[in-house]
Design goal:
Structural class of chain A: alpha/beta
Radius of gyration of chain A: 21 Å
Strand content of chain A: 15-25%
Distance between the termini of chain A: 48 Å
CATH architecture of the largest domain in chain A: Alpha-Beta Barrel
Helix content of chain A: 25-40%
Largest interface: A-B, 77 and 77 residues
CATH superfamily of the largest domain in chain A: Metal-dependent hydrolases
Oligomer: homodimer
Number of strands of chain A: 17
Number of helices of chain A: 14
Shape of chain A: globular
Largest sheet of chain A: 9 strands, mixed
Chain lengths: 419, 419
């Protein structure tokens, strides 16, 4: 099955160059990228009308099923948000809830050109089921301390197969929510598997202070002393790192995953990303969950990754738009371990989006890449293709399930969780 | 000509209540809002499918034609942005350029549910022509010191007619760019006409410092000493106001027009809106021009109006989402002098938008108003109606001109301005 995209502008993200050309997809892989395709006759031809093909965005930090909490706990103090709203609702989860809620979150990802998410949430099999049924690429992250280490190992080995749509990465929720014994057990498994570990870290000042009180060290330093980052990994949020912690992340090639919208809305803080960038750290971008953000929108995040650094560094020239686009695509893919979904190239996964350059916000054509970061919105996403399948085109979903049913089910569940 | 909206959720913005009902438009006015319409037979019925009708957004600070500068001067220091890119391009304007560029900006407004803009730019007749041809509501603002005061008076009297689509407000560009003699002349005219005056003010720290050096007073205080705000008016940006200046604005019922995206991207600062809100000032929201923002997107602005106050005040409970929605609609209408376009009510202008509640970002339905502010994007705008005419529906434009021609023309002009 060959799909040929004709009459396209193409941004492979291997460089900042944009050229006019063609791209062919065979089954789930990119088969040709160049000026003119003259191989096997395609089964399907899509005229891009000079719109832009580029790699899909990678949401490097997500709690997809948390769409239930969207706009049901806004404008509350942090403690009330978490303990009076989010936690009590999560306690009421029944079998199938996460499966159903994840599907709604995936639909939203498709509207934002997000082709993969690093999904930190409970009940991994339900996330995998939802993702596979809709054709979405989820990288699931171990998160519950209640799960035996043997289960983590089993999932790691069974889910991480070549060419599988879903994969699995080791993690803990956070230092402040995890017993030291558990942390050590996860580290032991990571060492055995030579695998990276990810976690929420440096999100709030209170978290850092608490860790220093508990362990006499800031979180990254404490975990590093246990060998946590020996095989890489990274942190979600990373708003409050000491210079020493930046160095530890650098030494272990760990990823900074920043979530600017969520951090603003929960009043956690603004990550010093320009400092991290100058130190040579690799930065990826996540939306966090819809309970705190509240949207799952890579365009909003990209804008803020750049604009917040400009204002906090009092310098509009820092954090160049193209660097941010790289964070949202290439760096995200690396952080998620999706090395075959990073750029548009022959043999890579066909995780491709089309940006509508006829949208007024993309005009006039001065600098397409910067337009996407500084002026883009979900409204500019013309197509989202994952693993060779067009799942969203011209504001319509092409998934194998009834979209209205997904929405109804999510509302039913949310209603139950709230009562 | 009667258009009936059936099966709608309706948020009039007279209160935060949302009810299921019907709304009828007769010519350019709202004719009925309530549970069930049983008046004259409508010419046209629109089934809203339980989507939301609400007043359109009012863009309270814009330089619409500046779309030419979108993404052609990003990531530059402020001085280079203004003096090496923007000003030299503006010097090359020819007759018709602003007319053509304004049309592209208007198309973008329609995609964001913006039904009126407070447009501070040169060549008012070209802005009026573009607006009237496309059916958009522009409130033009005197901006050029080169125009004789008699012309300002003439425009004020000829443009401000009942039921006209475009109107005219007195203004100066800014204190630091305007000779004192000119400022005094505009004030004299404002006193004669009993009219408000608007200007850029308190945008950067350098501007405030310069004013203190020139006049021994901060900008608001200096201008107030000349009688600038005697008939109201307001300021664009307002990032750096002293407590005394807040009091002056309060005394004269002046409007704060905040432009958070632009202020971040140019590294100008973050307005202390929560302080202004507590002081009882009325806040409206603007996008500024596409040269600095770079998008003309009320959703991005609304999010930031709230989220930036939460993070800078270290309190996620400040700047409630509904208050922000009011700023973007009702307060904006007041600032623009559009008292007939503020809410959905009988006799008001039919400046109405429909929000697509089936969009995944609007689901589940927990709190619709907060969803719009915290999770909305242009992608959620299903319809934009101005003055009784549907100009945008389901991502398609219904304007009386060829959209592709508008885009081509804007590119041609931009190319010339750049060379």
């Amino acid at each position: 099955m060959i799909t040929l995209f004709k009459n396209a502008r193409i941004l492979t993200m291997k460089s900042s160059e944009i050229f006019s050309g063609e791209l062919a997809v065979k089954d789930n892989k990119i088969f040709y990228v160049g000026e003119h395709y003259d191989g096997e006759v395609p089964d399907h031809v899509i005229d891009c009308e000079q719109n832009l093909l580029m790699p899909g965005f990678k949401n490097a930090h997500a709690h997809t099923a948390m769409v239930f909490a969207r706009s049901c706990a806004d404008d509350l103090p942090l403690h009330d948000w978490l303990y009076k709203t989010i936690f009590p609702m999560e306690e009421k989860f029944e079998d199938g809830d996460i499966y159903n809620l994840t599907k709604l979150g995936i639909l939203e990802y498709l509207t934002s050109g997000i082709t993969a998410a690093f999904d930190m949430y409970f009940r991994v099999p339900e996330i995998v089921k939802a993702s596979e049924e809709l054709g979405f690429r989820s990288v699931c992250l171990a998160t519950s301390s209640a799960e035996p280490i043997s289960l983590l190992k089993e999932r790691f080995e069974t889910l991480n197969k070549p060419d599988a749509l879903c994969s699995y990465v080791l993690g803990i929720h956070a230092e402040y929510t995890t017993e030291e014994e558990r942390i050590k057990d996860v580290i032991k498994l990571a060492h055995e598997l030579k695998a990276p570990i990810f976690l929420h870290i440096g999100e709030t000042e209170a978290e850092v202070k608490g860790c220093v009180e508990r362990h006499g060290k800031t979180p990254v330093k404490y975990l590093d002393s246990l060998g946590f980052f020996d095989y890489g990994g990274g942190g979600f949020h990373c708003n409050f790192f000491t210079d020493e912690e930046v160095e530890i992340f650098k030494k272990h090639n760990c990823y900074i995953v920043t979530c600017p919208c969520s951090n603003l809305k929960l009043a956690s803080g603004i990550a010093p990303l320009y400092k991290y960038q100058k130190a040579g750290l690799t930065i990826a971008i996540g939306t966090d969950g819809a309970g705190s953000n509240n949207s799952l929108d890579m365009f909003k995040e990209m804008y803020l990754v750049s604009a917040l650094q400009k204002v906090t560094n009092h310098d509009p020239s820092v954090m160049d738009g193209f660097d941010v686009l790289k964070m949202a695509t290439v760096n995200g893919a690396k952080a998620l371990g999706l090395n075959d979904s990073d750029v548009l190239d022959v043999g890579k996964n066909a995780d491709i989006i089309m940006i509508d350059l006829k949208n007024p916000a993309m005009q006039p054509i001065n600098n397409i890449a910067k337009n996407i970061v500084y002026s883009g919105s979900k409204d500019c996403v013309k197509m989202t293709m994952i693993n060779g399948k067009v799942l969203y085109y011209n504001h319509e979903f092409f998934v194998d399930q009834d979209v209205n049913e997904i929405i109804e089910k999510a509302n039913e569940i949310t209603k139950r969780l709230k009562t």
